[in-house]
Please model this.
Amino acid sequence: MASSSTPEHQQLAQAVNDGASAINAASTTEELRTVVSALTGKKGAISTIKSSLGKVSDVEMRKELGQLVNEALTSLQAIADSRSQQLRVGEFASVIESDRVDITEVAMSARATQRRGRLHLVTQATERLEDVFIGLGFQIAEGPEVETDFYNFEALNMPPSHPARSMWDTLFVESDEPGSVVLRTHTSPVQIRVMQDWPPPIYAIMPGRVFRKETPDATHMPVFHQIEGLVIDRGITFADLAGTIESFTKAFFGEGFTSRLRPSYFPFTEPSAEFDIRRPDGSWIELGGCGMVHPHVLRAGGLDPAEWSGFAFGFGIDRMAKERHGVNDLRDMYSDDVRFTEQFS
Ligand code: DAH
Model:
């Protein structure tokens, strides 16, 4: 092949050189496509050289230049293919990077931590109460929320039409025998179930939800929570009751708190009392009721009052949570608004 260097040879060499630089300078697949079609298209440098070959008079020379034009096109295409390959690898890597999901990121971010759920104030209070009583040697029992009249009233020394029944505004459940099924008005019926089911001695607490026909206001809810306590053993006295209330007070509220009992009336205990807690500043919190388990109640629970004696107590959990966290309105505690619950850790 002739190695002569005509102006056409030089132009071709230049066109391939410039073409290669333009191809390698393309930074996206899209840009590369535009560059390649400009180089190899009808108006590209190479086509221009090709169409000028008609003017070359030497036939051999024309043939050689024609072949060189084809080679130039082939080599530019090869350079374009390899650049295209490089660009695609890079672009794929950046798509992968931008689509990457870091599944640890969500859980670790500060926002996710702030949004983590919390236990309800009443649940927190119930768990603390359980911890304290477990520490004092008590076991936990639960009973049904839908109760029979027998457990909610009769076994607790309130026969039908006993006036003390009016101490609880009762919600009744429709049943074959009207009035025989209620939403429990207190956790005291669980005392009877525990006496029937567990062999004495018994040291039990019974937390749970209770229901009363109340219009909600800042200090009352138709659904709230109580915790019941029951101790049955041989030779249990009122002093054991007072001592237990005092130990509980110090364990739950702190060493600076004390308790007092005031005479009161409940049908299921005799004698009965209400107990208050004295804050370190001298003010009092009225907490709940207590007393020595009435012999009729022991018998309803299947126990012989000549052999066993005991005490019981019961108080509201919601009011304690309200007190502890300085909540003004009980209804806020049940608003299910995270902006409320998030205020308390
Ligand atoms: N059950 C009572 C109430 O709901 C509270 C109570 C008082 C429970 C005295 C007791 C008790 O166990 O001995 O008002």
In short: The chain has a mean pLDDT of 90. The CA atoms of residues 19 and 39 lie 7 Å apart. DSSP finds 14 helices and nine strands in the chain. The longest helix spans residues 59-99.
